[in-house]
Amino acid sequence: MEFMKNRWWPPVLIIGVLFAVIIVGCIGDAPRDNPLDPANGIDISGKVLRLVDNQPIKGALVSVQPIHRIAETDVNGEFHIPEVPRGTYSLHCQAEGFAPDSVSLTVNQSTTWDFHLNGLPRLVDVSLTTWHISRVFPIDDDFFVQVNVQADDPDNRNQVQNVWYEIPSLGFADTLTEISLEKEFLGILRAPQAGVDSLDALIGKPFVLYVEDIFGDRTRRDNLFLTRIIKKTPTTVFPLGHTVSVPFTMQWNPVRLPYPFTYTVEVFVDDFIVTRIAEISAIPSDSTRIPFTMNLDPTRQYFWVLYVVDEFGNRSRSKQSPFRVSGSGK
Predict the structure, then answer these.
(1) Exposed, middle or buried, 285 (CB in 10 Å: 0-12/13-18/19+)?
(2) Which fold has domain 122-224?
(3) What pTM was estimated for this model as a whole?
(4) Distance between CA atoms of 190 and 146, rounded to whole angstroms?
């Protein structure tokens, strides 16, 4: 001990020891303000739920941008993103069949955020067909496009609000009419409406269909095309102004077309309001007659029509063929 007290310490060594002590002290108290330091990280967690009933959505993806951190929800709709540096971020959420959502968050501590996603409306069934109608009056044949849509919404069918279509190359759009409580929609398009001379000008031009719900969220179906226009019309033979007794046989002239087709027969009662009372479809293309056995009222007037229907649903129709049932008197 006496040796230590009397020993001489070089000034350079003393200065070195003091400097080391100062550095160690500074390191111990240094602020940890590096935003990329995991020790500064926080957790972002929460749930992804259906807007309509708060049920969990499994498999939704939640991402933190711009740092590209992603988590997937579990069976309970829960997600957890650990060790996110403090800061302001965009939190994005998406799930198949739902409208995406996002929120801006400034986080300085562990944060919880729940998303409530709206189910996207759907175009369940879409039919885009051409119709060629031969008629007694007016004598000119009628050509039009018929657009049929069955729409739905995973949250509630009644949330479907609008269905419409566009023909982008023509700058044309039209809204369909709702025709049933089951959210069936119908649209009729004739050539002059679209600014063209005939339906032939629409062949090869893409149609785009949209469905929108009450929240303004929408889905679309692209690249729908008309396939063909059936120019040839079938002609009926019997009954055609005849009085018949049930049962009787409807007859027509054969039709020759270079593609597959079938026939469809429709029967109407013609009172103050024309009402379809019978339909016989999928009649083979080599047929020229079909028996009719439905009981009819002799006091009423009737007519029938014959359609040629191709494999895409395009149609060409005969003129109306009136007939009466025996016992009605004249």
Answers:
(1) middle
(2) Immunoglobulin-like (2.60.40)
(3) 0.79
(4) 9
